[in-house]
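Example 4.3 (complexes with small molecules)
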Amino acid sequence: MSAPTTFNGWVGEAKGAPLVWKEMPLRAEDEYSVDMDVTHCGICGSDIHTLESSWGPAKYPCVVGHEITGVATRVGKKVTNVKVGDRIGVGAQSGSCHECKRCKAGFENLCSGQRTGTYNGIWPNGDKSYGGYADKWRGDCRFVFKIPESMTNEVACTFFCAGVTTYAPLKRHNVNKDSVVGVLGVGGLGHYGILWAKAMGARVYALSSGTKKKDLALELGADGYAATSNEEDLKPLKGELTHILCTGTGQDFKWETYLRLFQPNGVFINVGLPSWNFPEVSPMLLVLTQASICGSAIGSPAEIEDMLKFAAEHNVKPWIQKYSMKDAPKAVEDFNAGKPKFRFVLEN
Ligand SMILES: [Zn+2]
Ligand SMILES: [Zn+2]
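Answer. The structure with zinc ion bound is encoded below.
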């Protein structure tokens, strides 16, 4: 059977244009390529930033979606990690150079050569990359993962971006039963942050601007909640935390508010990408807290494998709401209205 050359997907043709369902070219096959029939795709904030060109001009036409699960339908000659019929997934990254120092050290997510985003990117062969608001996807086996037996495709998909973005740094910074973790922002990423930190055995406090998210955060398993706008709420946390995972915060952000919540040597991990810069940090504050401030970008293939195993072992389940793939424009509209609790999943 000859390989398909096209797929159908929801196409953003220009900034602000409505999504249209149409036929698009699949990238060329090669010995590492994997074809998948898409079953599910999560909706990520990055999809909206790309469609709206808010992180810089997008390469229209775009088909977004980078929390993709499906079933492998065709694999290249050198593919050994998946076979036809396997349930598989792919996240925000679909390619790296495999040759730079970072790739060789297992930091493919930080590749300093050609790094292919799952959508709005360019494959090494020059073809454009298209995401999972679609019926089919073709990519590279080195960024494709088998889904654990115990996990359905609809549950699995959001692990591939939101899941690993929050799992990888908590694991890297050794969150465990002795940790006290503050999760700043209770949205798609923050909800995962709470689930992971609890599964790692930590005590977890959800931190969010008002009181709106309090009940949900406690329902997710947080041991406590503090409204960051309320000094009285934050007082009992002073000097208590070992880690803060920052998934989102307002532009009124102040380092003092958060670094003083740390025990000595606390770690502030940023995974959010607001369009503004963090404020200056006082050298005195850094010295006298011995805090570390760092960031984290999605996760490497090894971290994705590790996350899937951990999630299956600890039965970590994201909170998702499903929409039919044909209702993707409505799902995007509801996403933009802030309705996800906590992740939307499109289903074919
Ligand atoms: Zn994403
Ligand atoms: Zn590289």
